[in-house]
Write a structure and sequence with these properties.
2 copies of one chain form a homodimer. By secondary structure, chain A is α/β, with parallel strands linked by helices. Chain A is built from 9 helices and 13 strands. A 6-stranded mixed sheet of chain A has the order 6-13-11-9-7-8. Chain A has a 5-stranded parallel sheet with strand order 3-2-1-4-5, with helices on both faces. In chain A, strand 7 and strand 8 form a beta hairpin. The longest helix of chain A has 19 residues. The two termini of chain A are about 35 Å apart. At the A-B interface, helix 6 and strand 8 of A face helix 6 and strand 8 of B.
Chain lengths: ~280, ~280
């Protein structure tokens, strides 16, 4: 029997998908939803044993997880950084805040590493989505009906080279390449906004929904251990890529997550994009 | 005596600065202004022997430069790609258009290399700004009154590492780094828009005009020979960096151009930014 899983849930679709996948795999799950981050569309949390907590109240999380018999922890979803001055702190939060602030100043990766270390210091084991919900991990090969052509494969190769070079410098996880030209490279703005700005480039450089060109690629940073922050796509990513005129999405097989694979495949088919997992 | 210099002038301040600097250095200058690109603020061209030409009329440029006794050519300034279907072509333009279109599809660098090769095939020597107007090249050391502190120097080092890695892949020439975090990386959108999006990131990650943090860096792509497309800054770059809350600008000494050094220094001093040339 697998250990009971505690999920700290931020925003977006990933926490729901992880919780559902883990439960479908036979695990008991207890979810703590982060106040201020879980956001809209959070009704799913009602389907699981759960409670809500302030991101400034780690003491509550430790206590609740222990009460529930949770031994493994997973952090998933987007966290909007609170204004620390307005943060509701418990006693442990007060003690840990200086280290959290220091980590936060170094970016999301560092903050995530700090949070994972904090739970491990309390005796919990922190695991990644690939372990808790292996069905979400991108496989090698095509999802849906469309297949990348040789131009798309060349653009994916170039995109992965860019993302690996950037990732080695801990910059970003994503890029858009169109017929050899790097249209956009992700840094602190995140993948969604990077995709959106492709549509604002002059039309000679990019595709359109009527004439799709270029690919989005996402891959693990070589600096990431993969446990806590794999790149993710979902239906909304496919919609954004479609709106930006892209021809498809290339993901690192074994190094990226797909939320709702069946829905992603159907959306990609409907909009005319490919989604391909590539072994790097 | 130095050869007479022919300048193909696109938009922005660089062509004016090059023409003025070359003439101040004792060179005769003849300018061909590109219709559709020279843009607003192009009155300066009246101070030099000149004519206007369509970017589709290379035959006219060859003929005029020969008539004027020009032997060396310099391409400078931004060129807005025309709609090729609306382009006014001369006979040579018709012949060269297929190659130009092919190069254009591969990005600005490729288009520029094609244009340089086109003039060289006609017997002209194509030179870079560093040769024609060495006074515009960024020197080592600080321009203006402010000096980067240790944090800024660390951010510049990280920024140059990012730009060199990206440049080796022919992606971009610029990045913004703030206290170790890569806020933005340049691809096809160009430096101006990259700087502008820094101001849209959440405030915890970046500086503000009241609390300046982070640096813009620009460096030559290792793939560029430096002759035709050095990175450029001017007064407007300082203003954009200031509006985005940056603390300063780091440039590759010997590998970047500064239009109007005295004005850039004065603007940086007035707005509270440093401008530093760093030998890589």
């Amino acid at each position: 029997m697998t250990a009971k899983l505690g999920i700290i849930a931020g925003g977006g679709d990933l926490p729901r998908a992880v919780a559902a996948s883990a439960r479908a795999g036979g695990r008991e799950v207890f979810v703590i939803g982060l106040i201020g981050s879980l956001g809209e569309g959070n009704d799913w949390i009602g389907d699981f044993p759960h409670e809500m907590a302030s991101p400034g109240a780690p003491g509550q999380a430790f206590k609740s997880f222990r009460r529930e018999g949770v031994t493994e922890i997973l952090l998933a979803g987007k966290v909007d950084r609170p204004k620390f001055s307005e943060l509701k702190l418990d006693a442990r939060g007060v003690l840990l805040l200086p280290r959290a602030l220091k980590a936060a100043r170094q970016g999301d990766d560092a903050l995530l590493r700090f949070l994972a270390a904090m739970f491990e210091e309390e005796g919990f084991r922190v695991i990644g989505v690939a372990e808790a919900a292996p069905g979400l991990v991108c496989d090698e090969g095509v999802l849906g009906k469309r297949t990348p052509n040789d131009d798309h494969r060349a653009d994916m190769d170039r995109g992965f080279a860019i993302v690996r070079a950037l990732g080695a410098l801990d910059v970003g996880q994503a890029a858009v390449v169109c017929e050899g030209l790097a249209l956009a490279v992700e840094a602190a703005e995140g993948t969604d906004r990077m995709i959106e700005r492709v549509a604002t480039l002059r039309e000679a450089l990019r595709g359109t929904p009527r004439n799709r060109r270029g690919v989005l690629v996402k891959a693990l940073k070589p600096t990431q251990d993969g446990a806590t922050d794999m790149p993710v796509i979902g239906v909304a990513t496919v919609e954004r890529a479609a709106a930006a005129g892209l021809a498809g999405i290339g993901l690192q097989a074994g190094g990226a997550l797909i939320v709702d694979k069946a829905l992603v495949a159907a959306k990609a088919d409907a909009l005319g994009l490919f989604v391909a997992g590539v072994r790097l």
